[in-house]
Design brief:
about 280 residues, 8 helices
């Protein structure tokens, strides 16, 4: 439940911030709320369509290469989480500026109101589609049930929407970049755990058997089937008896994500630095 809450909470805030920027830039424009709601509805409908196709795809592989399919889904989710963190590190401010520009153009009459629905709809569809894939990966990794994941998702949407409203109204003193820093760290650990679980599924399909010997057993301290063990397994990939392949995958994802985010931030800072005037 915690993993789905963190993922949905993060994506809901990102979509909510875009909606908030659009509303702030078009303050006073008649019928702006109606077009924004249309965009939210269209994006949500598109995400539901993506969810339907993901469920049908999983059913096709049920009982036939299910381990390989689960591993592939988890690795795709890890790749998208890594790309997501790195992309937001370098393009988050740029995206906010572009959205604000569209809102200003609508307010000044240079663009039609339908542009608001398009911008909001694309944002909700993008974040919603990512949520679908991420949650499918969390469900495939085990450690949580569909009902617990649903509860976590609903709580994530509610908390994300409430926090977005508070940020929009200026009532929340927590800076958005600090909030994103915390959720980025949690998503990094979540992605590392999904990578380790993908290796486990590949080992069940007779791959990486030479590295399948457990390195230690910490079940005396925290069992996998305990309440805390299941929560940590879902959220950060805890396993009482990890093997070398799983540890390598876990550490490699963390290292790769940190390097990519640092490079992305450095490139973004370099691009947006003002050019020095020649003497």
């Amino acid at each position: 439940m915690l993993a789905s809450l963190v993922i949905v909470f993060r994506e809901a805030i990102e979509a909510g911030l875009i909606v908030g920027i659009v509303l702030a830039a078009t303050r006073g424009v008649p019928q702006r709320g109606w077009w924004v709601m249309c965009g939210i509805a269209a994006g949500t409908l598109g995400a539901c369509v993506v969810a339907g196709f993901a469920g049908q795809l999983g059913a096709l592989f049920d009982g036939s290469g299910q381990e390989l399919f689960n591993a592939a889904i988890l690795l795709i989710a890890v790749g998208m989480l890594t790309w997501h963190n790195a992309w937001m590190a370098s393009h988050g401010r740029e995206l906010a500026r572009e959205v604000r520009t569209v809102g200003t153009a609508v307010a000044e009459g240079d663009r039609p109101l339908t542009a608001l629905a398009v911008v909001v709809g694309v944002a909700v569809l993008r974040e919603g589609s990512e949520v679908v894939l991420f949650l499918y990966g969390v469900l495939a990794s085990g450690g949580t049930s569909a009902s617990a994941m649903l509860v976590g998702g609903v709580l994530g949407v509610a908390l994300g929407a409430a926090m977005s409203v508070l940020i929009y109204l200026g009532l929340l003193a927590v800076p958005a970049h600090r909030l994103f820093a915390v959720t980025t760290g949690l998503i990094t650990l979540l992605a590392a755990g999904l990578a380790a679980q993908a290796v486990f599924f590949l080992q069940q399909a007779d791959y990486f058997q030479g590295f399948a010997t457990p390195l230690w057993d910490s079940s005396w301290l925290l069992r996998d089937d305990s309440v805390v063990g299941r929560l940590l397994h879902t959220l950060v990939g805890y396993t009482a008896s990890p093997d070398a392949a799983q540890l390598v995958a876990y550490a490699a994802v963390i290292a790769l994500m940190l390097v990519l985010m640092r490079l992305a931030r450095g490139r973004s800072t370099h691009v947006h630095q003002p050019a020095r005037s020649s003497p």
